[in-house]
Design brief:
single chain, about 220 residues, alpha/beta, Rossmann fold, 2 domains, four-stranded parallel sheet, three-stranded antiparallel sheet, about 30% helix
Length: about 220
């Protein structure tokens, strides 16, 4: 399952961002941040305690089912009074959730988390980045293994000279991405694909800010 991977900002940064706001309403999310334990019910409760100890008044808290859903405000209707009483909202969700809520309510919103990457759960409590959403995908030529996110150096031609017994020189506990690609292509009888030189990555595959529109039907 793909998730937005987040980590909590330091309490010092949260204090700075909420400076001048004496009354705070806290919102968590029941999906990604609950799974990564950065914005579920226990984390919201812990944040409430921390803010209270810092002299803030927490007017209310809730964990909405899906913060990045446009129906979020329907979930918040029962909290109209504590929301009105708040000087700002502390949002313990990914950046998508923060922006969704910001568009739907006329209150200052403060992100309590930093969004790191889009990742897939690969073990109990372990998430690995699976896609940088770079807009220049080459996994059709690398056996379905993304070298940009699997290789520490993001090499699109490899391996580098530091691979050692199939391990990465930067992290000896990590398999070398290009060894994985080689073995995958070898098993598929497609090693010829690895001999193709890939042009240097376009680090701006899609102009910023990104925008995509489905063409109108003919």
């Amino acid at each position: 399952m793909i998730r937005s991977i987040t980590q909590q900002k330091s309490i010092e940064e949260i204090e700075r961002l909420t400076d001048g706001m004496g009354r705070i309403f806290i919102i968590g999310c029941g999906t990604c941040v609950t799974l990564t334990r950065t914005g579920g019910a226990p984390e919201v409760a812990a944040m409430q305690q921390q803010l209270t100890e810092k002299g803030k008044v927490v007017t209310g808290t809730t964990v909405v089912p899906v913060a990045c859903d446009n129906l979020t405000m329907d979930m918040l209707k029962e909290f109209q009074n504590p929301l009105k009483q708040a000087d700002g909202l502390l949002i313990m969700t990914c950046a998508f959730g923060v922006q969704t809520i910001a568009r739907q309510i006329s209150k200052m919103v403060i992100p309590a988390l930093d969004t790191l990457f889009v990742g897939k759960e690969t073990g109990a409590g372990e998430f690995n980045e699976v896609c940088l959403q770079c807009g220049t995908c080459i996994i059709g030529e690398t056996g379905g293994i993304c070298p940009v996110t699997t290789c520490h150096k993001g090499l699109v031609n490899g391996p580098c000279g530091g691979t050692n017994n199939g391990k990465c020189e930067i992290d000896s506990n990590k398999d070398c991405a290009w060894t994985l690609i080689y073995n995958r292509l070898k098993d598929l009888g497609r090693l010829d694909a690895m001999r193709k030189y890939q042009k240097p990555r376009n680090h701006l595959g899609e102009p910023t800010p990104g925008k995509f529109k489905i063409p109108a039907s003919a």
